[in-house]
Every structure is written in structure tokens, then in C-alpha cells.
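Researcher: We're reviewing a set of sequences before deciding which ones to prioritize for further study. For each one, I'd like a predicted 3D structure that I can look through quickly. This is GYD family protein. If possible, include the structure in C-alpha cell form so it fits the rest of the review sheet.
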Amino acid sequence: MVTYVVLANFTDQGIRSAKDSPKRAEAFKKMAETFGITVKELFWTQGRYDIVTILDAPDEFSAMTLSLSLGALGNVRTESLRAFSVEDMTKVVGKML
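Model: Here's the predicted structure for GYD family protein, in C-alpha cell form for your review sheet.
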């Protein structure tokens, strides 16, 4: 599994219908499942980003497909960050020269 931290901001369309945001979040979780992706956490936040989500995807292609499918709905713009667990990072640094 590949873990991602997804940072999202409402678009003009998304903020106009902010009251629907919790329902859209549930629909997003179901959409993610169709690509084999698990939404581990989803938070609405104050500050630079409106939403922060933690995902586990089977591969990068699934994550990209979900990102494009979500963006096409027009409610949010996202920035995805590949995340590494301590186990992953231990392997990475173990290969350093």
C-alpha cells in the first residue's frame, strides 16, 4: 500500500455549497473504495488548507485516478504528498551511500 496525505482547498463552487461538505466527504470515501483506496482520516481544517485527508492506495495509478476523478467534480483542488512510515524510511536510509 502507498500512503498519501492529501491537502485540499474549496473551489468557489465548493465553498458556495460548504453545507454539503460532510455528504460530499462520504461520497468521496465511497468513490475511493471503487479504486481500492482506504480513506484512513479526513479532517476539515482552519488555515492554509480546508481539508486534510490520509489515504492508503494500492498503487500510484489508483491514487492518481482518484485525484483526477475528485478534481473533475469541481468542489476542491488538491495537493497530494507521498508519505512514508517509519518502516519505509528505515529501508530508504538503509540504502543511502
